[in-house]
Design goal:
Blueprint (H helix, E strand, L loop, with lengths): L7 H31 L19 E8 L2 H12 L2 E5 L6 E6 L2 E8 L10 E8 L3 H10 L3 E9 L3 E7 L5 E7 L14 E8 L2 H12 L2 E5 L7 E6 L2 E8 L8 E7 L3 H10 L3 E4 L10 E5 L5 E5 L3 H4 L6
Parallel strand pairs: 1-4, 5-8, 9-12, 13-16
Antiparallel strand pairs: 1-5, 2-3, 3-4, 6-7, 7-8, 9-13, 10-11, 11-12, 14-15, 15-16
Helix pairs in contact: 2-5
């Protein structure tokens, strides 16, 4: 049997990862274009916003999926979300509602060639000026995947890839952001960036959205860098686990029963990627994948922190 030269396996893996990344980027960029068309003339996404903005806050989350009906069935079953679809097929856009408030959206994009399924969550950060964010990303070593676009009702957005390869977006809504009120079950609660160089990545996002940085060590986890703005912790940056191929943002939804939510996810056809562990937030955190491969976290935070207006 012919032996591989030293490093050949690692090189093959790296080539495969680059191809996977390019396919994902093409899928996301194309999906955003379709979503832009579908959302034309959309009613304001934040019905209760008061016109104020919270730069650095993750204000919106979009699921790109190849099966919109299946996504609604799955997430409705585990979180109790409701959905409102706008626009004609195939470019229709579906708003996600929790407790009467809009928290995100879903739209369809066929999977890349050779893939049997594909779904990705996109996390959107509020910024003061989207055009300025575009210039910053280009100058700081990132890349623009979808240029600045304005959609009546939604606002102005753009989609980027950071210097380590994580995809994210920025959004300046037309009506302002929702207030920093206490988070309710079923709302997006937190976002983790898993990346190859946490310090450099934290510096990149600090320059983008004006974050203040601090370090945090939670039991059972690696040291992470917390991104803070407006007196609130907004997200954290952590080392990329060995099992994860590509840097990316992982959003978490607040639930009151992690194990019960996982049971619902399994019953709906989902997959548990990270089981609750006693040494990790006392078993109050888990990560799962939906039936099309979209990855999302769930967390049960302490009641007193929920009542602190989102400060954590």
């Amino acid at each position: 049997m012919k032996s591989e030269p030293p490093g050949a396996h690692a090189k093959t893996q790296a080539v495969g990862a680059r191809r996977h990344t390019r396919a994902v980027v093409r899928m996301l960029a194309g999906a955003i274009v379709l979503m832009t068309i579908a959302c034309a003339g959309l009613a304001p996404i934040f019905a209760h916003a008061g016109g104020s903005y919270h730069p650095g806050r993750f204000v919106w989350f979009d699921l790109v999926t190849d099966d919109l009906d299946e996504a609604q069935r799955f997430y409705g079953a585990i979180f109790g979300w409701r959905f409102q679809t706008v626009g004609p097929s195939p470019g229709r856009y579906t708003l996600i509602e929790n407790g009467g408030d809009r928290i995100g959206g879903m739209f369809v994009r066929p999977p890349p060639a050779g893939a049997t399924r594909n779904a990705r969550w996109l996390s959107m950060i509020c910024v003061n000026d989207v055009a300025q964010a575009v210039r910053y990303v280009e100058q700081a070593g990132g890349s623009v995947l979808v240029p600045l676009a304005r959609i009546a009702g939604r606002g102005t957005h753009a989609l980027f890839r950071d210097p380590q390869g994580a995809v994210f977006g920025v959004l300046r809504s037309d009506t302002g952001d929702p207030p920093d009120d206490p988070v309710q079950d079923g709302d997006f609660f937190w976002v983790d960036l898993l990346t190859t160089d946490p310090e450099k990545a934290a510096g990149f996002y600090a320059g983008l959205a004006g974050y203040e940085l601090s370090e945090l060590q939670l039991a059972g986890t690696a040291k992470r860098i917390v991104l803070e703005s407006g007196g609130y912790a907004r997200a954290s940056v952590a080392p990329l686990p060995e099992a994860v191929k590509q840097p990316g943002w992982l959003p978490y939804v607040l639930v009151s029963d992690v194990r019960g939510t996982l049971q619902k996810a399994i019953a709906a056809g989902g997959t548990v990627l990270l089981e609750p562990r006693a040494e990790l937030l006392g078993g109050n955190l888990a990560v799962l994948a939906d039936t099309r491969g979209g990855v999302i976290g769930i967390v049960n935070w302490d009641t007193q922190d929920r009542d602190a207006g989102g400060k954590r």
